[in-house]
Amino acid sequence: MRDTIVLTMMLLSIFTFGQSKSGAKQFWENLQKQCGKSFEGVVTEGAENDTFRSKTLIMHIRNCSENTIRIPFFVGEDKSRTWVLNYRNDHIQLKHDHRHEDGSEDKVTQYGGTAPNSGSATLQLFPADQKTCDLIPAAAANVWWITLEETSFTYNLRRIGSDRLFTVKFDLTKTVSTPAAPWGWQD
């Protein structure tokens, strides 16, 4: 009888383990639920003279496919920034797509990193990748992270070994009007 109970518990454990989703998958699915929505944010960490503080900050979770989510991030009238998240092999990658008003790529674009593990349902961490190190040598010590909670989304940057820290927090309980397309996109 005892052996049957132990075997049943082992099988139940294997079955339950096989059914649970990884942190990356849960994060991805929760972010996709926000697709199409726009939210206003505020700088909660950063230099006091940061020019972002005096502008309206809007993120629009604009484009979601099975493996890519594009989130334009508007700073006032500046529509040059899009966060591009890619989901592959149970890891999430963050890239920064920067464009000029005419839609052409900025010379400093496509930098970021890939999460070294599946992370959690509420936190994904992205250390700078080699492309970033080559493109922006000072950013070799950058770590970005995104938190996704029921009521908020935060985008964060820390440059290890310096006092550089930037956080913008978006309130997911209050949608705002959808902005026009970012630079380089078609409506």
Summarize this structure as a short list of keywords or feature phrases.
alpha+beta; 187 residues; eleven-stranded antiparallel β-sheet; 41% strand; Lipocalin; 18% helix
Would you write up a description of this structure?
This is Secreted protein. The model is unreliable at 4-18 (pLDDT under 50). The chain contains 3 helices and 11 strands, in the order ααββββββββαβββ. Strands 1, 2, 3, 4, 5, 6, 7, 8, 9, 10 and 11 form an 11-stranded antiparallel β-sheet that branches. A hairpin with a 2-residue loop joins strand 4 and strand 5. It is globular and about 40 Å long. The chain has one domain: Lipocalin (Beta Barrel), CATH 2.40.128. By secondary structure, the protein is an alpha+beta fold.
Number of domains: 1
Note the run of SSEs as H and E.
Answer: HHEEEEEEEEHEEE
Our count of helices gives 3
Instruction: Count every beta strand, where a strand is a DSSP E run of 2 or more residues.
Output: 11
Organism: Flavobacterium segetis
Protein name: Secreted protein
Short summary of the structure?
The chain has 187 residues and is α+β, with helices and mostly antiparallel strands. The chain has 3 helices and 11 strands.
Q: How is this fold's topology laid out?
A:
Blueprint: H1 2-19, H2 23-32, E1 38-45, E2 57-60, E3 63-64, E4 68-75, E5 78-88, E6 91-98, E7 111-114, E8 123-127, H3 130-135, E9 142-148, E10 152-159, E11 165-175
Antiparallel strand pairs: 1-2, 1-11, 2-4, 3-4, 4-5, 5-6, 6-7, 8-9, 9-10, 10-11
Protein name: Secreted protein
